[in-house]
Amino acid sequence: MSKISEQDIRKLASLSKLKLSDEEVKLYQKELTSIVAYIEHLSEADVNGLAPTSQVTGLKNVTRADALIDYGVSPSDLLKNAPAKKDNQFKVKRMIV
Amino acid sequence: MNWDSIEKIAHDVSSGKVTAESLVERSLGAIEETKEYNAILAVSKIRALERAREIDQKVKNGENIGKLAGVPFIAKDNFLTFDTTTTASSHMLENFHAPYQATAIERLEAAGAIMVAKSNLDSFAHGSSTENSAFGPTLNPLDKSKVPGGSSGGSAAAVALKIAPFALGTDTGGSIRLPASFCGVVGYKPTYGLVSRYGVVAMASSTDVIGPITTSVEDAAVVLDVMSGKDRFDGTTIDRDLDIYDGKPFSLKGKKIGLLKEYLSSGIDEGVKKVVLDTVEKIKAQGAEIVEVSIPSISLSLACYYVLVPAEVSSNLSRYDGQRYGLSDTTAKNLDESFEKSRAAGFEAENKRRIMIGTYVLSSGYYDAYYKKAQIVRTKLINEFNTVFEKVDYLIGPTAPMTAFEIGKNVDDQLQMYLADIMTVSANLVGIPSISIPAGNANSMPVGLQLMAPQKSDRNLLALAAAIEKEIE
């Protein structure tokens, strides 16, 4: 059984862009260890010769005409919930530090 | 007071016998009277009354309104709607006002239905009890010390509390059927793709579906009929059956129904088992042929689900980054810190847990062992269901292995909580329709009977459920 370490949790949190407190790291380490132990039951399945499924109704490559669709929503509607905006665009913190 | 059937309500509104405004007022009154249950998060009073008066005026003008004329309804708070916030029961979206409405809401409104309020759910629909809501749990209408089930717990409770004739839910692994079972109402999960999910907060895109919660199968069929069919805004939608979903006469005589062995073996409450088996006897007495069937991989379905769903959750929830909408941390010094702090403050513990499990099973060292393996087990499960559906036309079993449990009982034990979904997740993984109807009581709480059918046989499944509902009454 894979044991999930505190370091693993910190790595997962970083990949998931979640800032965790030390208490949360300890708690999630315990909880994720037991959840992962449960999903490890999958290794018992005999799946010889079977392919993975990601879509269940058989749809493949659903396309549409390469034309403008009017969704009835304007850019200013979409910006209404923005925490910060400038010149009709989203404004974010600097990326390069 | 019980609501009339949806068909009758719409007929009475269309003929001018009852006003839509009085129905909305009744709904708003019921919301006030049942506040202690915390089923409702936001009320659309102004818009609902405006729409009601518009409909009443149209009736006076002799205009045709539609199949749901004046029928009030409740939407789970993960449907984008005008007039109210859409929070997904999270701090992340606590102040979010949707710039457009979900297709399902648009279609219901076009048929004359009126959304009056938004209902509580487990945050981002992650949960089986509605206790993961950022705004407090919903209480079970039949026993306030118990959970209503989840994640559509507010919707099921609202229907059981008679706030409206129907409510909308979403079902990723049982989130419509489990609360329907726990609250003693009808919950319908359609075939994957039958109802557009455009404008609904995404959880796991390969299993999410939308469906109605009602007090009768007939009402569920009427609502489904209005919502279903292709939508150019959702590429996963499928063509609907050309016939309407409601009103098809049906006899149980000669129907081949498989009793799922795995659902009655281990870990099931004896009272639940008895209610299910008693119902099976009633169905048999009507001439249905009950065959015991087995789907061995069902024992792995929950493990499969708890790999695939968190994986999709971790991807779908990456959009909540605090930059374009939703909670945004104001103290961060740079963009990366803004992501991390906004997400830390906006998500509940179960959201974080699932995001991290998803990230874990998708990470390069574990992808094959967990994610890919789960996708292959999914194929195996689909094959086994297909084999069984060569022998029988329907499947029958309990919706959940237990009745509604005490609030707080499972909050510190995720695996115990996840087990509530053990009988519902398979239908989502396989994409087939499934319904939970009230079949009796055990432990003084309702027991849901679950029925399933092959993909795209929603109409027959609803007809079967209506026929069985009649026998239970």
Structure description:
- The complex is a heterodimer of chains A (97) and B (473).
- Chain A is built from 3 helices and 2 strands; from the N terminus they run αααββ.
- Chain A is mainly α.
- Chain A has a domain at 6-44: Histone, subunit A (Orthogonal Bundle), CATH 1.10.20.
- Chain A has a two-stranded antiparallel sheet with strand order 1-2.
- In chain A, β1 (85-86) and β2 (89-90) form a beta hairpin.
- The longest helix of chain A has 18 residues, at 22-39.
- In chain B, β2, α4 and β3 (114-119) form a beta-alpha-beta unit.
- Classes of the chains: A mainly alpha (97), B alpha/beta (473).
- The interface between A and B is large, with 55 and 71 residues.
Which helices and strands occur, and which strands form pairs?
The complex is a heterodimer of chains A (97) and B (473).
Chain A (H helix, E strand, L loop, with lengths): L5 H10 L6 H18 L35 H5 L5 E2 L2 E2 L7
Helix pairs in contact in A: 1-2
Chain B lengths: L5 H9 L5 H14 L6 E4 L1 H16 L11 E5 L26 H8 L3 E6 L33 H8 L5 E6 L5 H7 L2 E4 L19 E6 L2 H11 L28 E5 L9 H16 L3 E5 L4 H19 L18 H12 L2 H14 L4 H25 L2 E5 L15 H5 L6 H6 L3 E9 L2 E8 L5 H15 L1
Helix pairs in contact in B: 2-3, 5-6, 7-15, 9-11, 9-12
